[in-house]
Amino acid sequence: MTSAIDSPALPGDLAVVFDFGRVVFDWQPEALLARILPHRVGSADAAAHWVAQVFQSYQGDWGDFDSGHVDVPTLVRRIAQRTGLAESEVQAVVDEAPLSLLPLPGTVALLQRLKAAGRRLYFLSNMPLPFAEHLERSHHFMAWFDGGVFSSRAKVNKPAAAIFDHALDQFGLPAHQLLFIDDHGPNVEAARTLGWNAVQFVGHDELERELIERRLLSLQD
């Protein structure tokens, strides 16, 4: 593990680490299930119910999928047995989910500006392996990143400390030289506890202001 150094990084000297879901890529599980399972998702309450059942707050079966400990057939079988959904229904959701991860234009524009400004870019994302491979194949801006960690390859999910330690090893940088951006509060707090700079993503406008304040972007970039 790369050890952190207590002295702070200079303003503008941080590498920027992005979460993916709801930060770089849109993720709307309620809309996904309503589209794939319209016979089951006929209301907002039904959508919330089935999102909880299928994704389990990204713990349980789906958490094992995120961390690379189960493959797609095992996931489909486990969710079907647990929820009463047909395996064909679960398979349809799993097949469609990566296709619904569409880039968020505002964040992609910030990535482009950061890259043009010479900033080092990394990612740290809870992501099942088939989804990660789809993103790598499908989006040209994945080449803008200097490196990254997917939970399914690290075999551990955020907010566990082990994935942040693994990321330090992969990036070759100490925690204090990284700015981590994630939409999920517990992940942000975990990073801060481990000495990372971290901010919670609420939108690309707010993130732009944060990056300018930290001298990672200027108004001219």
Automatic annotation (TrEMBL):
Q: Which CDD domains match?
A: HAD_sEH-N_like
- One Pfam family, please name it: Hydrolase
Q: Which SUPFAM superfamilies match?
A: HAD-like (SSF56784)
Q: Which Gene3D superfamilies match?
A: HAD superfamily/HAD-like
Q: What is this protein called?
A: HAD family phosphatase
